[in-house]
């Protein structure tokens, strides 16, 4: 291509730059608008480098996320045209957030205090009071005791403290909830209507879909609760009041769906009303895996990495980045805590993202205990449980969940590592390799072979046939 041809393909792109530190109102300030000449085949990384050269952000102090029409542009090697940018005047949102190095150390220390629940029962006040909170249960099934305790302790704190907006990097609204002593955070509340691209998104951006393909805006909260319930599930103890351990195999923090009223939430249009969303136990931690270098990451045990990998493959997580794996030193090792599961259970595999694929521990074979745990997965029982608790997963999403779980089980039976399994589920970042992942091909062929009206066990049988052919070296036909 000649220089003239290259110049002819150049287009002027607008950038709306948002600082990721959210103020007490949890409403993002008005953006700074910049413009930049780009070629549609420029990579995401090249665009970020251009913005840094123009001093739009400081690479040493800030992290940059690009969003176009409600979708995160996370594949740095992909050209911007792959995300639909092709004409003059297209607008890209630039979300900037400070690195942990720039954070206030004293505030960080405040966030790492131990959370203890007060066992006394508190009735939530009526709506004519300044606040109220209740756990939503859509059936007669018992609410796990750990969730009742979490809600009661949070409600006590809400009577004494205003919700504290988190520094979420501009990706939706969420709030730290303090306990009754006002000295420590006890939970995190994520309202349905303040999720990314939902009606009260702090950025003021509203789209039908969420930031990732296969998830609708405003549906993340129910996935947060589902991720906990399926991880926590053990034989007969979901409603037990004497369960000694409140965490499942992968360690998803206790999470439930609540209805909360407080005047200090975002209420646009002058109408103050209750908000529905997810409430999750605030976890003691020091940093996230995004805040440490390779030296610390090498210290992670393979077992800790594998518990995250099993969760992500099973749930088909399309948003497992290093920032949503928290680190806590416990007994001389780094405990890894998975959070932010609002982008699990999608309706497609297109945006599957696994940060742990870059970690050497993912290449280590699974321990026998982990293999035994994976063998117990029964996706049809999982779907039935979620339905009993109020969420009948949409058909296409349920089929993706069936595919992820079945693929995991069959790959583990054949001795594949988490790294190998994950690599078969993600798309290449290489712009010269635009093919879809092998699991997408399997999923599409199973959908063609089994009509939507047919039962889940029929779909799973077809999946087993296709996956078996693929793994054993045959053709997917």
From TrEMBL:
Gene3D superfamilies tied to this protein: Phosphatidylinositol 3-kinase Catalytic Subunit, Chain A, domain 1
EC supergroup of this enzyme: transferase
Boundaries of every PI3K/PI4K catalytic domain copy: 161-458
Pfam families on file: PI3_PI4_kinase
Keyword Lyase: no
Superkingdom field: Eukaryota
E.C. number: 2.7.1.67
Alphabetized InterPro entries for the sequence: P4KG1-8 (IPR044571), PI3/4_kinase_cat_dom (IPR000403), Ubiquitin-like_domsf (IPR029071)
Keywords: ATP-binding, Kinase, Nucleotide-binding, Transferase
Protein family (similarity comment): Belongs to the PI3/PI4-kinase family. Type II PI4K subfamily.
PANTHER family per record: PHOSPHATIDYLINOSITOL 4-KINASE GAMMA, PHOSPHATIDYLINOSITOL 4-KINASE GAMMA 4
Name of the featured protein: 1-phosphatidylinositol 4-kinase
